[in-house]
Amino acid sequence: MAANSPPFTPNEPHDCGDEILRVEHLTAWHPVNRHIKRVNDISFSLHRGEILGIAGLVGAGRTEAVQCLFGVWPGRWEGKVFIDGQPVAIHHCQQAIAHGIAMVPEDRKKDGIVPVMAVGKNITLAALSQFTGRLSSLDDAGEQHCIQPIHPAAENQNVIA
């Protein structure tokens, strides 16, 4: 805590929005050592307007839990996932994206980009089908229209709106 921290203010009552995501009894097993649980029976819900943070030490299962929800966990997992109160099955990332789920990987420079492509092209990869024509040719103008640079950020990385 810094010496000039703002004074503590008590929580004020507020209305929770509708439940948009609920996860029940998520359990994931190691992809090779299948008897080892990497995530053990977690449940949570997220309401409109809330921000959900998943915290824990290295090896606690944070990344594995998110990978399950995004459909990229390489091992077996089970649990129930509800979006807007409806049960959904997510077995691969295309299903997650179709349900409005996105994932920012922990090591975004290693797992989150194609380094030889421009920032804007990387951003539109997940929605590439929106920028292809009938014969699967890329609509560069449509893709470029969705990419709006704001300003260069620190470390020569770009911020895109």
UniProtKB/TrEMBL annotation:
<keyword id="KW-0762">Sugar transport</keyword>
<dbReference type="InterPro" id="IPR027417">
    <property type="entry name" value="P-loop_NTPase"/>
</dbReference>
<keyword id="KW-1278">Translocase</keyword>
<keyword id="KW-0547">Nucleotide-binding</keyword>
<keyword id="KW-0067">ATP-binding</keyword>
<dbReference type="InterPro" id="IPR003439">
    <property type="entry name" value="ABC_transporter-like_ATP-bd"/>
</dbReference>
<dbReference type="GO" id="GO:0016887">
    <property type="term" value="F:ATP hydrolysis activity"/>
</dbReference>
<keyword id="KW-1003">Cell membrane</keyword>
<keyword id="KW-0677">Repeat</keyword>
<keyword id="KW-0813">Transport</keyword>
<dbReference type="GO" id="GO:0005524">
    <property type="term" value="F:ATP binding"/>
</dbReference>
<keyword id="KW-0472">Membrane</keyword>
<dbReference type="InterPro" id="IPR050107">
    <property type="entry name" value="ABC_carbohydrate_import_ATPase"/>
</dbReference>
<feature type="domain" description="ABC transporter">
    <location>
        <begin position="39"/>
        <end position="126"/>
    </location>
</feature>
<dbReference type="Pfam" id="PF00005">
    <property type="entry name" value="ABC_tran"/>
</dbReference>
<keyword id="KW-0378">Hydrolase</keyword>
<protein>
    <submittedName>
        <fullName>Xylose import ATP-binding protein XylG</fullName>
        <ecNumber>3.6.3.17</ecNumber>
    </submittedName>
</protein>
